[in-house]
């Protein structure tokens, strides 16, 4: 019997949906717009696909229901706060987290297509193409001064005003830059490559297990290149996520690998040691050549760093969670509501104004926390439920030939403790698609409670929560630190320790005054700079500061080799956005003064010399008055005792 017209249409629609999904896998490493169009086409055509597909989709309604439930609660919360929106529909459609629910529709559709064995070979090939495009674009961007996406779209010419790449240092005589592929940010690119690295690592282990030397070498080379780009990418949250999900899977599948590797012999041990030495030497070489990587690793234990301002973000986030635990604040209102919280911090310590102003506050930089804030506790709990099902599925994943391991999608759980990847369309859309592909190709082996998945989620969540409870217990006055630039990082750390905190932290101030910190004579005689204070005062519109700028210098009578002279140069710095805060920016000297230092407290005072606008909208025409300092008059034969510096609360030293 000849198929009817409508059945032919449904068959064609099903095929278009599948091939749109395949092309989506190729498109998302290259173009955000193209990938969204193809995702939309796949979803639209699926609606008209054969009825059998809708029967299959029932299998995936449980995990998808957790996702839709989390988005639905954000929508309900938004309706509850309707009157608090200046323009509800505009804010909701453009800024609300619930507006991204359509991205998740690709999850069950990808699962249905992946459940068909005839489709899996095609999907496997396209996954490899997708990975290679991510890798190649990342390597290309390492050596590109310009952001490749915009550079290519502008006809291979830089457009005026386009942001350049962040430099990463020279390598073999070539300048390198922080890799972002064809994406707009390094965090997005870090998320994309994270999908593949754990799977690639497992493929290497799998080929070692099967004693396939050629494929082992080939996959190992790809893994090494991907790891190099990944480390250079600087996405610390993604690093943790990839490490966590890889360990989780290996521990789950340890029995599959245990006892099945090649027999240990002297020759193989020698080769393995040689490879580890080569790998270690290579890592060390790249580390020594890359100042950006050195800085990133050094900042892992710091509270306040140029790129990691989570302390301030969470300080502003948690009060919102406590105030609206049931229904949340409503979609798209995180920035507005967190700004209200920041006012209380600034009114208490005005010096925090700029710090909080440049702290990213569009979202909570934590996936679960973000949904818990905007949609209520239950919204966050539903996401935890989805990740439980995801890790249960990952633990059941089989390592069969012809399947690219997709366990890397689980990186988002741990990485999402530090970054809102689920709010990043460029990462969230492929995440839902790849999760669907994993769900569809893996048959449900058991619906029983998974202790391993629950323990993993609970342990990682508890460790992260405990860490931030400890971190956030530090008062804001002690968490804040003025930026110091010196001839070396160790010297900068010592100088930071000599700067006294705000006056209300008496115990810490007295402790630092009583400390003795010595530096080498060459370091003692080197110039360093300290971030000062703004030319205008809070609130906004800002009024011109009327008080003179001042700071104190303390010399203990018991010190044996303290400086007797100090040269201070006051310089002006522009106030600028967070992308430029810790990079090169315009500055110029305003005046220089030499002081004689005596035991006890000494005072430096500087009066504004330029005619500035009396009232302005911050941060326009608002500048910093900062200080370059050089000590002298000490014995060059032994270490110099580093003086204590007191900038008061707002460059307003007062001797009591």
Automatic annotation (TrEMBL):
UniProt main location, coarse: membrane
GO CC list: membrane
Pfam families: Wzy_C (PF04932)
UniProt protein name: O-antigen ligase family protein
Superkingdom of the source species: Bacteria
Domain O-antigen ligase-related residues, every copy: 222-384
Keywords: Ligase, Membrane, Transmembrane, Transmembrane helix
Membrane-crossing segments per the record: 21-49, 61-82, 123-143, 187-205, 212-231, 237-254, 266-287, 371-391, 403-421, 454-470
Keyword ATP-binding belongs to the record: no
Record's bilayer topology term: Multi-pass membrane protein
The species this protein was found in: Leptospira andrefontaineae
GO MF annotation, one: ligase activity
Location(s), subcellular: Membrane
């Amino acid at each position: 019997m000849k198929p009817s017209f409508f059945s032919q249409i449904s068959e064609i629609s099903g095929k278009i949906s599948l091939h749109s999904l395949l092309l989506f896998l190729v498109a998302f490493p290259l173009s955000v717009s193209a990938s969204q169009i193809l995702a939309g086409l796949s979803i639209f055509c699926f609606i008209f696909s054969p009825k059998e597909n809708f029967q299959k989709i029932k299998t995936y309604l449980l995990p998808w229901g957790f996702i839709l439930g989390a988005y639905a609660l954000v929508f309900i919360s938004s309706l509850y706060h309707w009157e608090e929106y200046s323009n509800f529909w505009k804010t909701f459609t453009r800024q609300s987290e619930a507006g991204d629910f359509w991205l998740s529709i690709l999850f069950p559709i990808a699962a249905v297509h992946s459940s068909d064995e005839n489709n899996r070979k095609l999907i496997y090939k396209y996954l490899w193409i997708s990975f290679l495009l991510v890798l190649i674009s990342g390597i290309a961007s390492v050596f590109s001064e310009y952001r490749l996406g915009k550079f290519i779209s502008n006809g291979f010419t830089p457009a005026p005003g386009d942001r350049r790449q962040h430099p990463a240092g020279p390598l073999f005589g070539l300048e390198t830059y922080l890799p972002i592929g064809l994406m707009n940010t390094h965090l997005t690119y870090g998320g994309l490559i994270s999908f593949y690295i754990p799977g690639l690592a497992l493929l290497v282990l799998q080929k070692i297990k099967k004693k396939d030397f050629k494929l082992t070498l080939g996959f190992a080379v790809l893994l090494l290149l991907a790891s190099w780009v990944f480390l250079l990418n600087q996405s610390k949250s993604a690093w943790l996520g990839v490490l966590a999900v890889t360990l989780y899977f290996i521990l789950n599948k340890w029995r599959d690998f245990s006892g099945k590797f090649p027999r240990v012999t002297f020759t193989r041990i020698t080769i393995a040691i040689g490879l580890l030495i080569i790998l270690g030497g290579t890592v060390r070489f790249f580390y020594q050549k890359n100042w950006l990587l050195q800085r990133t690793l050094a900042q892992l234990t710091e509270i306040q760093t140029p790129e990691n301002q989570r302390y301030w973000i969470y300080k502003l986030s948690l009060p919102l969670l406590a105030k609206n635990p049931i229904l949340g604040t409503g979609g798209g209102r995180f920035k507005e509501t967190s700004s209200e919280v920041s006012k209380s911090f600034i009114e208490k310590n005005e010096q925090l104004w700029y710090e909080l102003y440049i702290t990213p506050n569009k979202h909570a930089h934590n996936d679960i926390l973000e949904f818990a804030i905007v949609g209520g506790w239950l919204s966050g709990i539903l996401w935890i439920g989805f990740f439980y099902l995801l890790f249960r599925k990952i633990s059941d994943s089989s390592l069969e030939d012809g399947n690219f391991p997709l366990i890397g999608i689980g990186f988002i759980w741990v990485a999402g403790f530090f970054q809102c990847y689920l709010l990043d369309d460029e990462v969230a859309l492929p995440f839902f698609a790849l999760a669907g592909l994993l769900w569809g190709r893996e048959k449900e082996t058991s619906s029983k409670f998974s202790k391993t998945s629950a323990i993993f989620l609970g342990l990682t969540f508890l460790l992260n929560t405990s860490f931030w409870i400890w971190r956030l217990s530090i008062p804001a006055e002690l968490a804040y630190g003025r930026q110091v630039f010196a001839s070396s990082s160790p010297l900068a750390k010592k100088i930071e320790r000599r700067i006294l905190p705000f006056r209300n932290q008496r115990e810490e101030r007295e402790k630092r005054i009583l400390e003795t910190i010595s530096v080498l004579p060459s370091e003692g005689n080197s110039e360093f700079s300290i971030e000062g204070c703004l030319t205008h005062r809070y609130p906004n519109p800002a009024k011109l500061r009327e008080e003179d700028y001042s700071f104190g210098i303390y010399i203990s009578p018991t010190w044996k080799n303290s400086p007797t002279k100090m040269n201070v140069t006051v310089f002006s710095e522009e106030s600028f956005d967070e992308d430029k805060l810790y990079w090169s920016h315009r500055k110029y000297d305003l005046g220089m003064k030499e002081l004689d230092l005596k035991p006890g407290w000494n005072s430096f005072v500087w009066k504004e010399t330029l005619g500035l606008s009396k009232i302005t909208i911050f941060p326009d025409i608002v500048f910093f008055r900062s200080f370059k300092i050089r000590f002298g008059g000490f014995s060059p034969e032994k270490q110099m005792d580093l003086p204590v510096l007191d900038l008061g609360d707002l460059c307003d030293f007062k001797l009591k």
